[in-house]
Specification:
Length: about 250
């Protein structure tokens, strides 16, 4: 991806590379300042927002900002707040925190503050998509995603090349592999929702010009639906997986 990243097989899809690099630089800055040899997993997003990034972070009742507000960022005050109702869902909580950090890093000059409500509108504003991409890159850094992905294949005795090719095909077998093997590993190791993991894998590709995404576009919808179906089982792991992670901006 960049000289800074260790990822050797995958790159972000075109259009996301600048944001990926911004997220990576922030992660590396935190890691170095804390004297860590590698970025810990799951990425300690709330802790790092406070230190070393020096942004106040809190959980509060945000209903005064409007109905269904999940998170807010205040540029001048350098503060990020997450609504207390989000706490019950670890994946959504972490993604919301990283999304607000994305606004702080990418959009501080555009507005004084952002309020975010849950929304599954794919046509959300550009800045909202950018904050989502930042959050995905921050919580699922590409080189760590690649490392964990190939560790999983090795552990299962799966051939790297063949499995990647299989996963990139929009087949029933591929869908099963994603649903049963790859996506659950990502949700667990990276502390993200099933939905966030789906979008992340659809947003990366092998480092070959014009390669299709690792997770085919045509599998996104059925996998998202299967994530919704998982809600009915009401397990904690599944509860992380049922939430759309796209946000839409609500004017202050
Ligand atoms: Zn937002």
């Amino acid at each position: 991806m960049t000289a800074a990243s260790q990822a050797q097989v995958f790159v972000p899809r075109r259009g996301s590379r600048e944001i990926e690099l911004r997220a990576w630089r922030i992660l590396e800055r935190c890691r170095k300042q804390l004297g860590e040899t590698e970025i810990p997993l799951p990425v300690p997003v709330e802790e790092w927002i406070e230190h070393p990034l020096g942004i106040r972070f809190g959980v509060a009742d945000l209903s005064y900002l409007g109905e269904g507000v999940l998170g807010a960022s205040f540029m001048k005050e350098r503060e990020i707040l997450i609504d207390e109702n989000v706490l019950a869902n670890e994946g959504r909580y972490r993604f919301t925190a990283a999304h607000e950090l994305g606004h702080m890093i990418l959009h501080a000059k555009l507005r004084d503050r952002f309020h975010d409500i849950a929304h599954c509108d794919r046509e959300a504003e550009t800045i909202e998509r950018q904050a989502d991409r930042f959050a995905a890159a921050f919580l699922m850094p590409l080189d760590l995603l690649e490392r964990e992905f190939f560790a999983l294949l090795k552990q299962r005795g799966l051939d790297r090349r063949e499995t990647v090719i299989q996963l990139m095909r929009p087949t029933r077998e591929s869908q099963t592999l994603w649903r049963r093997l790859v996506l659950p590993m990502i949700t667990q190791e990276f502390g993200v929702s099933f939905t966030a993991a789906i979008h992340r894998c659809n947003g990366i590709q092998p480092q070959v010009d014009d390669a299709p995404p690792l997770l085919p576009h045509s599998l996104v919808e059925p996998l998202l639906l299967s994530a919704l179906g998982r809600t009915e089982t009401k397990t904690r792991q599944d509860a992380n997986g049922d939430e759309p992670n796209l946000f839409t901006l609500k004017e202050p």
